[in-house]
Specification:
CATH topology: TIM Barrel
Helix content: 40-55%
CATH superfamily: Aldolase class I
CATH architecture: Alpha-Beta Barrel
Shape: globular
Strand content: 5-15%
Radius of gyration: 17 Å
CATH class: Alpha Beta
Distance between the termini: 14 Å
Number of helices: 11
Number of domains: 1
Number of strands: 8
Largest sheet: 8 strands, parallel, barrel
Strand order of the largest sheet: 1-2-3-4-5-6-7-8
């Protein structure tokens, strides 16, 4: 059985001091959880959160990274810098990176390969816009993003990858795909993974749902057979919302 994986993406929120205090609260409640729990603070708070979580079971993630190891890349953060701070997971291909900052599948693929080369685990995000959904292109979009994002990733390396399905229209909008809709796309993703790799690899893959996840909908989502966790945005910013999500009752 796949182990549930609950991740909090704090986006551009919290100073270093605020992040460290919040991480300490999460540690008190979630350390030694039976589930995998990860938080991804902004770059400026990574060191403070790493110190607050040191020795705990909660994983430290980064929200992005550069596609190059080092060099003349003003404003970028390298995989080597992330590893130096104790980061073990990096979120790549988030819809905000794709649609606000113009990241292509090719760029995301380069980042995925570099992260895996250096031993980081990857959460690879895929998902359609509202226009793509209404045009009936959901399956094509997520299958294409998945295939291109995993280009060059071996079957052995796939064990370091988690997929997050994020319908773009549900991120930060309060709208959520129904558990049935979400699970149907997760099933498509799993079938594509089986075609690209093998059924056993697809069966082992953890696939998260992201998009307005809240304490009152997490159990319904997690009850579905192909949904293995959540990549949580806004609700990950407060202990009263993220802790119940990460402690959902696995009926």
């Amino acid at each position: 059985m796949r182990k549930p994986y609950l991740a909090g993406n704090w986006k551009m929120h919290k100073t270093a001091a605020e992040a460290a205090a919040f991480a300490a609260e999460l540690r008190s409640a979630l350390d030694r959880s039976p589930y995998t729990v990860m938080v991804a603070p902004p770059f400026t708070a990574l060191q403070a959160v790493a110190e607050a979580l040191s020795g705990s079971s909660i994983l430290l993630g980064a929200q992005n990274m550069c596609s190059e190891e080092s060099g003349a890349h003003t404003g970028e953060v390298s995989v080597l810098m992330l590893k130096d701070l104790g980061v073990s997971v990096v979120i790549l291909g988030h819809s905000e990176r794709r649609h606000t900052y113009g990241e292509t599948d090719e760029l995301i693929s380069a980042k995925v390969q570099l992260a895996l080369k250096h031993g980081l685990n990857v959460i690879l995000c895929v998902g359609e816009t509202l226009e793509e959904r209404e045009a009936g292109h959901v399956n094509h979009v997520v299958e294409s993003q998945l295939e291109l994002g995993l280009s060059g990733v071996s079957a052995a390396q796939l064990q370091q990858v988690v997929i997050a399905y994020e319908p773009v229209w549900a991120i930060g909008t309060g709208k959520t795909a129904t558990p049935e809709d979400a699970d149907s796309v997760h099933e498509v993703i799993r079938a594509k993974l089986a075609a690209l790799y093998s059924k056993s690899a697809a069966d082992a893959m953890v696939i998260q749902y992201g998009g307005s996840v809240k304490p009152d909908n997490i159990a319904g989502l997690m009850a579905k057979p192909n949904i293995d966790g959540a990549l949580v945005g806004g609700a990950s910013l407060k202990p009263e919302s993220f802790i119940p999500i990460a402690q959902f009752d696995r009926a």
